[in-house]
């Protein structure tokens, strides 16, 4: 039984995918730039370009996160609209990313519900796929490594 009309989420998905690819390419360019810039270059034009690219990457990463979370929340809310029982209020699909410690497992459990629920609605079966687990493991590891690197760089005496 459908409770209400499922909202189209395809535009949000396309926007999120496009931004994820743009962020990945810019991150690859930034990584290459970091390999080319000497550690002691302070006034070099390449170092200025590196700083500008870093700021653009930060802004693009924030925009990408916003668009991904918009898609994620609507995908979760659509499960309920399609008559599926969901474990959490759909607001948690957005809010769980920002609550310390909860953000280590709640977004994964919600994504698992979206994955399984969508697959069941489309194909009447529930898949068992390791991609979802690997996505979350990589996300948590890169987030943790990023925080450790940021913390250690604050205490560094040289570049």
Automatic annotation (TrEMBL):
The chain crosses the membrane at residues 16-39, 45-69, 90-111, 131-149. Keywords: Membrane, Transmembrane, Transmembrane helix. InterPro entries: DUF4328. It comes from the Bacteria. Residues 45-157 form the DUF4328 domain. This is DUF4328 domain-containing protein. It comes from Hymenobacter citatus.
């Amino acid at each position: 039984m459908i409770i209400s009309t499922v909202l189209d989420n395809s535009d949000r998905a396309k926007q999120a995918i496009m931004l994820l690819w743009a962020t990945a390419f810019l991150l690859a360019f930034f990584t290459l730039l970091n390999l080319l810039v000497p550690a002691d270059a302070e006034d070099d034009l390449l170092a200025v370009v590196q700083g500008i690219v870093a700021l653009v990457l930060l802004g693009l990463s924030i925009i990408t996160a916003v668009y991904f979370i918009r898609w994620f929340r609507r995908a979760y809310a659509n499960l309920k609209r399609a008559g599926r029982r969901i474990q959490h209020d759909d607001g948690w699909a957005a809010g769980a990313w920002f609550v310390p410690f909860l953000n280590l497992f709640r977004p994964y459990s919600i994504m698992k519900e979206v994955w399984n629920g969508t697959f069941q609605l489309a194909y009447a079966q529930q898949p068992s796929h390791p991609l979802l687990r690997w996505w979350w493991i990589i996300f948590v590891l890169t987030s943790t490594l990023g925080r450790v690197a940021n913390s250690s760089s604050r205490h560094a005496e040289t570049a």
